[in-house]
User: Which sequence fits this backbone?
């Protein structure tokens, strides 16, 4: 695969976080070396995670603490992408009910969107119900989301990842489990902002003034990272340090097949 060469036109590397840069709280092998090398070549790096539990500031702080100095402007989360999407669609000053954690609430509030996370719904019209990863998900929250959507609120999902990779090869339930519960309770399909949908990738290419031919998406998941990258016309690299095995990748349909498969980011460094 041609990754494009360093030139006067910088490449844009869109790197997934969980399973690529770290797993749980552990940095992945060669993640730091890879990012520092790419930056040293004059390329741009943006981190794109489907998680919305934390704000961009918090992810930038986490990456910096792992030895990868990062500013919040280099991070795109599905929560921030959701806030951008809502702001573009006139949600400023409107009220949304959110199943999610503090990160997405902060991103939404920064755009002047009124966020309700707990307690009774107000009598005021709920314009949107946002559903993301929520480790305090309850029956009451599900019931509130159901009520608002059945009264006409638009159902938006930050992402539909079924699982979340954690340390030592383990998995936990992902945001997709909460989205599925709301979908079943309402029989309404959500608009999904995160990967494999392309909104966040398009925003990253727009904001860096980069064309798809100079964009490389690196991820550990076929049905989110790789599919999203292929949909925008970028080149795609699957790294086997996350949820996907080589066997799964080699058996994948054309729509999901990455341009390149590497064991670790160290192997990708060797290709450059
Ligand atoms: Mg991942």
Assistant:
């Amino acid at each position: 695969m041609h990754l494009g060469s360093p030139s006067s036109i910088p490449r844009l590397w869109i790197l997934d976080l969980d399973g690529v840069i770290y797993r749980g709280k552990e940095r992945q092998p060669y993640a730091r070396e890879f990012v520092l090398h790419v930056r040293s070549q004059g390329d741009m790096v943006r981190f794109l995670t489907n998680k919305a539990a934390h704000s961009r500031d918090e992810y930038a702080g986490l990456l910096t603490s792992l030895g990868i100095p990062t500013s919040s402007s280099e991070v795109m989360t599905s929560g921030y992408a959701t806030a951008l999407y809502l702001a573009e669609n006139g949600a400023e000053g409107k009220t949304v009910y959110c199943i999610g954690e503090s990160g997405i609430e902060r991103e939404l509030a920064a755009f002047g969107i009124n966020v309700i996370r707990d307690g009774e719904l107000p009598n005021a019209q709920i314009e949107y119900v946002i559903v993301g990863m929520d480790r305090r998900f309850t029956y009451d929250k599900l019931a509130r989301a159901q009520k608002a959507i059945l009264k006409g609120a638009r159902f938006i999902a930050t992402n539909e990842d079924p699982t979340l990779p954690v340390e030592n090869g383990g998995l936990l339930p992902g945001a997709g489990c909460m989205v599925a519960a709301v979908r079943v309770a309402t029989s309404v399909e959500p608009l999904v902002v995160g990967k494999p949908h392309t909104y966040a990738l398009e925003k990253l290419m727009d904001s860096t003034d980069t064309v798809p031919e100079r964009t490389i998406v690196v991820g550990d998941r076929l049905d989110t990272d790789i599919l999203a990258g292929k949909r925008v016309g970028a080149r795609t690299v699957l790294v086997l340090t996350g949820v996907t095995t080589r066997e799964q990748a080699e058996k994948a349909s054309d729509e999901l097949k990455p341009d390149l498969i590497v064991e670790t980011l160290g192997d990708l460094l060797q290709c450059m």
